[in-house]
Design brief:
Largest sheet: 4 strands, antiparallel
Number of helices: 10
CATH architecture: Sandwich
Oligomer: single chain
Order of helices and strands: HHHEEEEEEEHHHEHHEEHH
Radius of gyration: 18 Å
Structural class: alpha+beta
CATH class: Mainly Beta
Distance between the termini: 4 Å
């Protein structure tokens, strides 16, 4: 299991026991899925990839459109947003260094299920879709790792749907901030109210209220499109159980 997820799970368990959390460690810059491959296979796959920068607001693929590349983020994070007809979008997935963008190719389907937009600037390794499929046939280890990742993705989709249906906006917003923090490896990142509303599938007023709720309790600082988590342990206590549940599934399946 990657160091950021080890750290996250240690803190989740500590909170349950009433023990103060640990200081966030320095984290290496690699992709956790690729790190699980045998050395020779990892080196070959990385050698086929192209390093790219992920700029804030970049759209990497459009909903129901063919995907030209898959992405293995190293830093930053990507939101996968589903849009229904003319309604505003709703985030169904958040991808960082723990995963990949383009997993639907595993099913032999070269269409993006949602729009992929960079909401945390960073870097990634990019591989052409056709080359990825060739590597998938060539490497049983890659196929096995990504099959397990697909289960994690399906579990997170289910958890996100339940969270959106049953939990209050303040708890959902806190969960998203923690997930973004884990992927960005930073307590500070860009986030406007408009983008947050788009991600959570709520009105802008709902985000303003949720941000105000968390700021009033001195859990975050939010100004000029920049959010800073100032009290991570208290923010974890304010979120719903979905945050810990998602981390536990990842640890169990890919740890």
């Amino acid at each position: 299991m990657g160091e950021q997820f080890k750290w996250m799970m240690v803190n989740v368990q500590a909170r349950k026991k009433g023990i103060p959390g640990l200081t966030r460690p320095s984290i290496r810059r690699d992709n956790l899925l690729l790190s699980k491959l045998p050395t020779s296979e990892r080196a070959r796959l990385i050698g086929r990839c192209e390093p790219v920068e992920l700029a804030l607001a970049d759209v990497l693929c459009e909903q129901h459109k063919p995907m030209s590349h898959v992405y293995f983020p190293l830093t930053g994070f990507i939101s996968q947003v589903f849009t229904l007809e003319d309604r505003s979008g709703f985030e169904v997935g958040l991808v960082g260094a723990e995963g990949m963008l383009g997993s639907s190719l595993m099913f032999g389907v070269n269409f993006a299920p949602g729009r992929a937009r960079v909401h945390g600037a960073g870097s990634a390794l990019r591989l052409e879709a056709a080359q990825f499929l060739r590597e998938l046939k060539r490497s049983p280890a890659l196929k096995q790792t990504l099959n397990r990742y697909l289960y994690v993705v399906a579990s997170q989709l289910t958890q996100t749907a339940a969270c959106s249906r049953f939990h209050r906006i303040q708890a959902r917003f806190a969960r998203w901030l923690l997930m973004a923090r884990d992927r960005a490896n930073s307590d500070e990142f860009d986030l406007t109210h408009e983008v947050a509303a788009y991600i959570l599938g709520v009105r802008r007023e709902g985000v303003t209220e949720a941000a105000g709720f968390l700021q009033a309790r001195k859990l975050i600082r939010y100004r000029r499109g920049r959010v800073t988590i100032v009290n991570a342990p208290a923010l974890e206590a304010a979120t719903c159980k979905c945050y810990a549940a998602m981390a536990q599934v990842y640890a169990k399946i890919l740890g």
